[in-house]
Structures are given as structure tokens and as C-alpha cells.
Amino acid sequence: MEKLKIILTLFFMIAITTSGWAEPPVSSSVTFSASLLESETIANTPSDKKRTLLGIGEEVRLVIKPEALGSGSWATDAGSVDTGQGLSTILTAPFSPQTAQVSVTVSGVILYKTFNAVAPQSIVPLSMADNAYSHSGGNLVGAVGLVYLQVLPSIVSFYNVSFREDIPLQSFTWPNGRNEYFGPDTVDWDVYEDNTSYDVVETGLKSKGNLEPGIGQSPVNFAFSVGFPDKYQSDSNWVPFADPSYSAQYDGSNLKARISFTETGTVWTNWMGPW
Asked: What fold characterizes domain 4-118?
């Protein structure tokens, strides 16, 4: 519970009647500490719900204590509060990294509490699980997986933030000379309270003939990589914060393939196919 300073200014006048004159008003300030403004994050993860370090857009409930002080008038210099008057309010932290000072005027006294909002900094892949294509026949190659990832830092929550993959146009050339194009595209995504999310990464099913350098020639090994920069939505625009990529590898000898996700670490599917 944050210790808040309340400044009480006492005005008094000393009159000395025996001398026939009066002293001018004298202003005196008395400062003391009290615990009168409590806060608790809406998110249950991270477990420290009393913290004042927040993710951008994170919500926190503030309550006047004791309630006998009465209803207060709430305001904030950054982000927003959901009510202007009452015993409590919910602060939504700004969607850009900065401090937010919440104030409440109650019983003629102004109480303050300051929060610091931080932005997403990177993505870490935690694990990769194999998926499978439903096609069978052995003439198609490809890989598909489900990556479990987390947005960092994990000491705050970004559950209220909008994320987006902003994929630029990219291309590569198969061994048989065929050009493959990827993007442009945008893909919106979000995270749970613990900043985790899932993403499907896949090559798509392609003809095994793409791995053959020429007519009648045997398939060869091949690999390619593509990137999909990630952004978060701030108060004013989309801000880049991570630059993940995925890479695919093909084994010409058995037509198996695998795919990876890379950003602050790399995770791979197992070799799979042909399909």
C-alpha cells in the first residue's frame, strides 16, 4: 500500500489586544503520511496484484480507504478512468509507455498514486507441437506446427493490447525454378493474461516436383525463410516490437519437411510427410 502525503494548511491569526495591533495571518503546513488509496490489478497474472508497474493498456482498480471518507472525484493525467465520481475507479493505463498519476479529491483532500506503463519488448517461443495435414498420397511436401509463445516482459500483463503481424511481400525460388510469393498481409492476434498465445506456422502443401531441379531429376534438399514483423497498437499508431520469422527445410531423399519459429529462441516441428 503506497504511503500518500496529505498536506494540511492551517491558518490562524494572533491578536494582541494590549498593544492595539494584530499580527498578519500566518500560514503553516503540517505533513503526515497515511494509507488511504489502495490499488489492485484486474489481471490475476502476474500474481503481484498490488504492483504499480503495468503493461500498456492494463487495468487496475483503485479504492479509497477507509470508505467512511466518502465518495471522491477521480482523474488521471494519462490513460483513462471509468468513473469520475465514487468510492472506486478502474484505471486503464495508457497504450504508450509512460507514467500515469491518478488523483482523487475526497473530503477536501487530494490523494495521488502513480503507475508506470511499459510496452511489449519481444516474443519468446516456449514450445512447438506437430500438426498434420489431412491429405494422403505421398506426392505433396510440407510441414505444419502450433507454436506456444509469450510476449515479454512477463512481469506485467498485455491482455488488453492489440497485436498484429504486418507481413511484407517476400519471395523465393524453388529448385525447379518456380517462384513462390508470401504476403503482403496483416494478421491480428492477442494474448492471455500471462502474455501467452498460440500461432499456427505452416508451409502449405506443395508438389514434390518443386524439389526437382529438372525433368527426370531426383528431388534435392531445400530451405527458405520468411519474416512477419509484429506490432502493437499504441495510443496513436502501430509500433514494431518484434521481428519473428519461420524457416522451412525439405529433405529431398525422403520428401519430409519441418518448420521452425524464431524470435529470441527457435523451436522446430519434427520431420513430417510426405502427404
From this structure: Immunoglobulin-like (2.60.40)
